[in-house]
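Archive record
______________

***
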Amino acid sequence: MKTYKSYFKNPNDPADRSFEPHPEKYPVVELEYPNNEASEKFILLAPKDPDHYNPIMCLESSLHTIMKDYLTPAQRAIFGTLPDACFSDREVPIPYPPTAPQWAVTQPETSSPSPPPMSSASSPAPSRAINKHDGPLFLKVMNAINALLRLLKYPPVPSDPFDPTPPNHLREVVKSWGYVPQGVIERVVEEVYQRAVGPNVAQLRRYQAFSSEAYGELMPTLVSRIVRETGLHEGSLFLDLGSGVGNVVLQASLQTGCTSYGIELMAQPAKLARSQLEQFRIRCRMWGFNMGEVELEEGDMLSSKRVDELIPKADVVLVNNRVFDPSLNEAIRPKFLDLKEGAIVVSLQEFAPLSGVTERNLDDISAIFQVTQRNYRPGNVSWHGKGGDYYLHRVDRECYASTKQQFENTTGTRTKLMRSSRLRR
């Protein structure tokens, strides 16, 4: 706890030291997650370094996501009354009524897939307790919120033993989703990253900059965009050649349910990717849904037998080749010859010219691609705060064959005209 300091205090008792750092008895609070028997304890301390993991902020963000994406507007209104009750002079009641109220047992609303965002007036009550640094008040608020969440997760059992047991409402909401909401995806990604990668970021920065071993990440917003643009879905196979700590592989399988494979040469990122995969599986269970199958390999993409097996089946291949040296980019290109028709290669440097097939590159490997350039916004990548470009290469052999035939016909016609001209002389 040397890297953390106290955040909360007891305004009614200056002698209260329960909210200060302690080697063993540090202050904690629990948060109920959507799935049954799923909860987590958060340390109520603040990091001395603002770049370090902040458990209080993490707790608040996760709670906000639960309220925004798992509750109906009527249910959020119930939670929205907490600030008025909690900040009054009255004791906060723990809501365990003998029968479940109507808002706790109704079926989830499906007419609007994305409920409107909560206004500041109805935001979770802990925000006010956090701003006041009031420890006892924060614990009281969280007890009340957890009690309401438990009521949604474990509705009272009917008095008639033959009546069906009410289901966990938060899990029922998940069943109504057509897709995992973007806010939930980003929260799970962030929770996993903070626990598995965050404490080891300094080790990742040791790799030589501007070399093929340089470390860099695509941010979740850009990954989501690539997923949409390439049409990844539950039946797709996604490959990440040079997968780093596994962020893109894991998010793709979380967001779409697709099967994903990633290979990483460097030992430390590959180790963290395996740690992230373990955490992802835990987090998905806590949030109440599943992710697609993920396979991770530590090794060289150029010599991996598994890469050679999967390339012909792949629907989308990502190569974050922003700093790959020319020889490595050139060595990767022959593998794309085995891609099936319509497969897409996404990269940060183009593998084929944007101008398309010309007489000069007619017999080049890259001629099978139709290339589209896309722009990403500032903040979409980890290595700088600027915008930039990425490229979508779609395999289109039919177009290539047609274009090649046209060139050959044109060349043949040109040759015949030249021969005819010489004969006339």
User: Anything to note?
Assistant: The radius of gyration is 28 Å.
